[in-house]
What we know:
Oligomer: single chain
CATH architecture of the largest domain: 2-Layer Sandwich
CATH topology of the largest domain: D-amino Acid Aminotransferase, Chain A, domain 1
CATH superfamily of the largest domain: DNA ligase/mRNA capping enzyme
Low-confidence stretches: 285-289
Pfam family, one: DNA_ligase_A_M
CATH class of the largest domain: Alpha Beta
Largest sheet: 7 strands, mixed
Number of strands: 18
Keywords: Ligase
Protein name: DNA ligase (ATP)
Family: Belongs to the ATP-dependent DNA ligase family.
Enzyme class: ligase
Amino acid sequence: MELPVLPPVQPMLAKAAKKIPPGMLYEPKWDGFRCVVFRDGAEIELGSRSGKPLTRYFPEVVAALREQVPERCVLDGEIVIIRDGRLDFDALLERIHPADSRVRHLAEVTPASFVAFDLLALDDTRVMELPQIDRRQALAQALGDATAPVFLTPVSTDGEVAARWFEQFEGAGLDGVVAKPQDLPYLPGERVMVKVKHERTADCVVAGLRPHKSGPVVGSLLLGLYDAAGRLQHVGVSASFPMARRKALMEELEPLRMDSVEGHPWERWASEEAQAADRLPGGPSRWTGKKDLSWIPLRPERVLEVAYDHMQGDRFRHTAQFRRWRPDREPESCTYAQLEEPVSYDLAEVLGL
């Protein structure tokens, strides 16, 4: 490639905030794979946030970009999958597969889209030093004729519009709102934007733990919720504790430790058949590879309140944050019914289709 900006480029990042800041450029926060697109004529490379190429996994996106974006450009955006009017992150995870035949099949069955939200270079000109507002205008001109599956993200300078997006767009599977200073240059790898995400709480059963890699202290707590049939389903983990807290938690939970998984609601966690029927910890995944997913079973007798942003199907999309123990709650009362269900919103409305 002969471009003014060459791969790999680490995308510009955002830091979390609880409120939407005033006076910025606002965009929806997409829930997909961050992707920097490099196009030089027929040659296209899709770079991930880590710098590793995504190109082979999304041949249909490559073909669409070749048809619809300028012949020489570098774009920042997100690869997403749209199904039934909302984003489907689970289907996106399935696309990272080692077998080329499977990749080609999924490209037809669950085709992906690209949502552009920044411009790094166009033709022979590097534009990363330009203010965000100017890069946005140039991006809108460059993608003025783009059609599905290539999209230009909505943008606004109106804080009230951003607040409305924050409330409505979650129902279409979006992740919140991103706010960008209008005079901001593109700064690879730096957390200079602002992301505002939903935060909710849930009371969960602590049914196991994984030790920390550094020694016999808590690495993460395994969380469960009871489904309508009364089965305890694994919904995620709570982690990110200070080291002193990890040690204290291990001592605190020691009385609940079981000698084996026999009699535990997740005793069949190593069975592929059981993994297919229920959500259990330690399920096989190409993302975890050979990582040790064994865990220590605990009697499911304690309830923990955690904070989470949103659900991915029947589990927490991200690591849940420890808030407090709930000795006043019975484990059996920790069901999916307590979770807030966002009001449905058609993704076509977000993308102006």
